[in-house]
Amino acid sequence: MHILILPSEYFITKESPTAGIFQFDQAKIFIKKGNKVGVIAVKPYYTLRELSREVLLVLRTRSGIKRLIQRIMYFFFPTPFAFKKDQKQAINIIRFEGSYGLTRTEDSEGRLAQWNRMGDFAFFKYVKKFGRPDVMHAHNIVYAGMMGNYLSQKHNIPIVLTERSSEHVMKDLPDVLKRMISKHLNLMRNLNAVSPSLIEQLEARYSFQKGKMKWLPNVIDKIFEKENASKNGEHGSFVFLNVANLIPLKGQIELIKAFAKTFATSDNVILKIAGRGNLRAELEREIRELNLGEKVKLTGFLSREQVLSEMRMCDVCILPSHYETFGVVLIEALALGKPVIASKCGGPECIVKESNGLLFENKDIDDLARVMLKMKNNISKYNSDKIREDLLREFGEEVFYKRVIGIYQSAINDNNN
């Protein structure tokens, strides 16, 4: 089967190496199973406003002139200069590295028109170079799903959508964009989302048939799936591990406060927070003010291999986010047999069960502190091997592949009838 993936974000770029990582993981599974996989990644890189800022920066610093000239050329001549062919692990990629042109940031219809124009050109280049796909899989309705729907109707190729974006809940989207989303969700046949909670929220916000959207969870990365269950903590210490971007949405301030309430004077209990982001300075200040410098460690950004190593050595993985559409870090920890703690914030409720972890009330520091202490005191009750077995049965590679290939085949059959 020839599968064409349409991400709404950048796809594994030098500047953003984790952008599109979930689509990348899935693509590698499809290739491993003998399918042909391609990607057209056409999210524009910048707006006119951003280009204007870069012009001012170059005039002020007299550096970055070559990059600026390239961006100006891409701005006025987006086709064919801003399109590049690429390949990553046998995945054929057509990238658009240009801008939104004169489209205003708030102009949703103009932005979709730009996506469609660039999608047209990228699709033409892709088919000419790599052949016509059997099915397209768009990730997020804004704007890859809408563009994919346009290409699907134009070229009579079935389209499947997986929604994973938190913007439907966390942002106040413009009314015109909400109408556009409803329109395309109604037009598309094969709708999926990464958690039952997200499905409910989308059904409440947009006008499309209830029950039409199905649950298609994320898949565990193979480097976690091939590991055995691990029970040991780090050098005799009890280690809580949080892996997330350092932003308010991820709840690390509340996590540090909850840890201080329960473990500030406890020996051999450590909290590690792995990630990078603009909240780091505030987290460091909070750690100093609570005198936790020896007990709370900020590791900075970690590669997947480094995350794997930290998870092997931790006792519990903890995710105190204010909102998650799913919670991939939880299934990564569970694949290693580690029990987890998570907030009741949407996605984690379809992952965390009595046998593998504990949930706490969202943003409730006292409840988080209580649950952390309960977990530490009852850690021996969790069966690492069973945690891992249950996880792979629900979110493993084989289960995911059978599920999604069935969706693709059904979409192809429906399109042919």
Summarize the structure.
The protein is an alpha/beta fold and 417 residues long. It has helices at 21-32, 48-61, 65-76, 78-81, 108-130, 141-155, 167-170, 175-187, 196-205, 222-225, 252-263, 280-289, 304-313, 328-335, 365-377, 384-395, 397-416, and strands spanning 2-7, 36-41, 83-88, 91-96, 135-139, 159-163, 190-193, 213-215, 238-243, 269-274, 296-300, 316-319, 340-343, 357-360.
Chain-averaged pLDDT = 92
Helix content class = 40-55%
As a whole number of angstroms, the C-alpha radius of gyration is 23 Å
- Strand order within the widest beta sheet: 3-4-2-1-5-6-7-8
Per CATH, the architecture of the largest domain is: 3-Layer(aba) Sandwich
Distance, first to last CA: 18 Å
What's the structural domain tally? 2
Provide a count of the helices: 17
Main beta sheet strand tally, sense and closure: 8 strands, mixed
Please tell me what the overall shape is: globular
- What structural class do the secondary elements suggest? alpha/beta
